[in-house]
Design a protein that fits this description.
Blueprint: H1 4-16, H2 19-26, H3 30-44, E1 49-52, E2 55-58, H4 60-85, E3 92-98, H5 100-117, E4 121-127, H6 133-138, E5 144-150, E6 161-175, E7 188-191, H7 197-208, E8 214-218, H8 222-230, E9 235-239, E10 251-266, H9 273-288
Parallel strand pairs: 3-4, 3-5, 7-8, 7-9
Antiparallel strand pairs: 1-2, 5-10, 6-9, 6-10
Length: 290
């Protein structure tokens, strides 16, 4: 019989690539992860890992097993959701993740509604970059979260997650005067921290316009980004939720680029009462904010 906890470790190794990264994410030591994966190989009866020095890669058999693991783990989530649906009252903990501009505009009103309608539900909020959301959902650090994709940064499908559309926003060029994107090939740029979706979006949108931006400042808070634009420190691309109250000396020029926000949750949890309630509250909040 295959151990479910070990299957989960194998799945995380498929996503994270290294045993050290799996250990950090799952609160194991690297040696414990290695021991559990070795035990899984014995259970499976076939090699699952190819080891070259400190590097490991998954064998074809391991990749097949990961596909089965996704189905098995989703079925367990579904069983848990069905049991929760049989309870009279909605209780327990609901962990929600959201990116900064959504916390005030979408998440806060949803939290008010959830607290009012389900007072016995404990709500825990984590603010994080959408790029880290899939990992947090898979490892049970979150139950529901908001994920993003930009026209130039499409999201990679994750078989462990289900998603549904929530909101679509315009991307604006923030400058001191009315200009076009192409006019700023020699300008100083303000972009997010490297590795974030906002940073990647800025780079790719500018490259599509024929140049690579010279990023002078790395800032993740859009109010700070707009303040820097107002101070003459550069130009930036800002999504609609981050540009609701621009400084008076900042001009926002709408681009054809869009940012799409989706609700995400682990596959199999869609019918869990707490997840159902969160999805409904977030959709209602997004509708009111339009």
């Amino acid at each position: 019989m295959l151990d479910v906890r070990r299957l989960r470790l194998l799945r995380e190794l498929a996503h994270r690539r290294t045993i050290a990264a799996v250990a950090e994410a799952m609160n194991y030591t690297p040696s414990a992860v290695s021991q559990q994966l070795t035990a899984l190989e014995r259970e499976a009866g076939v090699p699952l890992l190819e080891r070259t020095g400190r590097r490991v890669t998954l064998t074809p058999a391991a990749l097949t097993l990961v596909e089965h693991a996704e189905t098995i783990l989703a079925a367990l989530e579904q069983a848990t959701a069905d049991l929760a649906a049989s309870r009279a009252a909605l209780t327990g903990t609901l962990r929600i993740g959201a990116f900064p501009t959504a916390v005030a505009t979408i998440l806060s009103p949803a939290l008010v509604a959830l607290s009012r309608d389900h007072p016995r539900l404990e709500l825990l909020v984590t603010e994080l970059d959408p790029a880290t959301v899939p990992d947090a959902l898979r490892t049970d650090a979150l139950d529901v979260a908001l994920v993003q994709e930009y026209d130039y940064v499409p999201a990679e499908p994750d078989p462990a997650l289900d998603t549904e559309p929530l909101l679509e926003e315009t991307i604006y060029l923030a400058t001191p005067t009315i200009t076009s994107l192409e006019d700023h090939h020699d300008a100083s740029w303000i972009a997010g921290t490297p590795g974030t979706l906002c940073h990647t979006m800025t780079i790719r949108a500018c490259q599509a316009a024929g140049f690579t931006p010279r990023v002078r400042h790395h800032v993740d808070d859009f109010s700070t980004v707009l303040a820097l634009v107002a101070a003459g420190q550069g130009v930036a691309l800002v999504p609609e939720l981050g540009a609701l109250t621009p400084p008076p000396n900042v001009v926002l020029t709408a681009l054809s680029t869009r940012r799409k926000t989706h609700l995400a949750y682990r596959r199999g949890t869609g019918r869990h009462p707490a997840v159902v309630a969160a999805r409904a509250a977030l959709r209602a909040s997004a509708e009111l904010g339009r």
